[in-house]
Specification:
The complex is a heterodimer of chains A (117) and B (114). With 117 residues, chain A is an all-beta fold. Chain A contains no helices and eleven strands. In chain A, the strands form two sheets. In chain A, strands 2, 4, 5, 6, 9, 10 and 11 form a seven-stranded mixed β-sheet that branches. A four-stranded antiparallel β-sheet of chain A has the order 1-3-8-7, with no helix packed on it. Chain B contains no helices and eleven strands. Classes of the chains: A mainly beta (117), B mainly beta (114). At the A-B interface, β5, β9 and β10 of A face β4, β5 and β10 of B.
Chain lengths: 117, 114
């Protein structure tokens, strides 16, 4: 049973560029959440996708956008990159946020390390 | 507000017990989680507890919850060098709203020495 996968593992961009990160959820999961983890800090919630729609959003600017596909995989897009966007971007998947059963526990992928120069 | 506080660093001797502490701000029913992060890696779920429980034990791990004080702790028995990592406490403020997002602390770095 494959866990959460993310690509690429590492990425280097320059200021002003745009980047797309990809995530495939754990088998059987239908919800994808994205987190940003700056160096030395805990992860911060960016947004969550369910049924191809953004359900919940953290305190991040509109430069951060996402998409969920019919197969539940997801993309995170960041436009007009800033130096401060350098971080580890983590994707987490879970099943059924509507509390019909289970714990909705989030399982994390290995992350994409983004460096903005 | 939504906040989680953790002590930043803990050093223990191999074979001793480790206790990592966390405080959170919300008092509603929710799940509380412990995740482990090794260098350069993602987050590994260790265990979780629902807020109507006081304790949960899972092999070498024991989670204690004091809901009155909003204090959560993770005890690792017989700590090994492989337990050296950063441990994050997290809770879900969206639980009552039917969706979930996690609020994390800054993490506690556990160093295990011989």
């Amino acid at each position: 049973d494959a866990g959460v996968t993310q690509s690429p593992t590492h990425l280097i961009k320059t200021r002003g560029q745009q980047v797309t990160l990809r995530c495939s959820p754990k088998s059987g999961h239908d919800t994808v959440s994205w987190y940003q983890q700056a160096l030395g800090q805990g992860p911060q919630f960016i947004f969550q996708y369910y049924e191809e729609e953004e359900r919940q959003r953290g305190n991040f600017p509109d430069r951060f956008s996402g998409h969920q596909f019919p197969n539940y995989s997801s993309e995170l897009n960041v436009n007009a990159l800033l130096l401060g966007d350098s971080a580890l971007y983590l994707c987490a998947s879970s099943f059924n946020p509507q509390r019909r059963g289970g714990t909705d526990t989030q399982y994390f992928g290995p992350g994409t390390r983004l460096t903005v120069l | 507000g939504e906040d989680v506080e953790q002590s930043l660093f803990l050093s223990v001797r191999e074979g001793d017990s480790s206790v990592i502490n966390c405080t959170y701000t919300d008092s509603s029913s929710t799940y509380l989680y412990w995740y482990k992060q090794e260098p350069g890696a993602g987050l590994q779920l260790l265990t979780y507890i629902f807020s109507n429980m006081d304790m949960k034990q899972d092999q070498r791990l024991t989670v204690l919850l004091n809901k009155k004080d909003k204090h959560l702790s993770l005890r690792i028995a017989d700590t090994q060098t492989g337990d050296s990592a950063i441990y994050f406490c997290a809770w879900d403020p969206g639980f009552s709203g039917g969706y979930n997002k996690l609020i994390f602390g800054a993490g506690t770095r556990l160093a295990v020495h011989p």
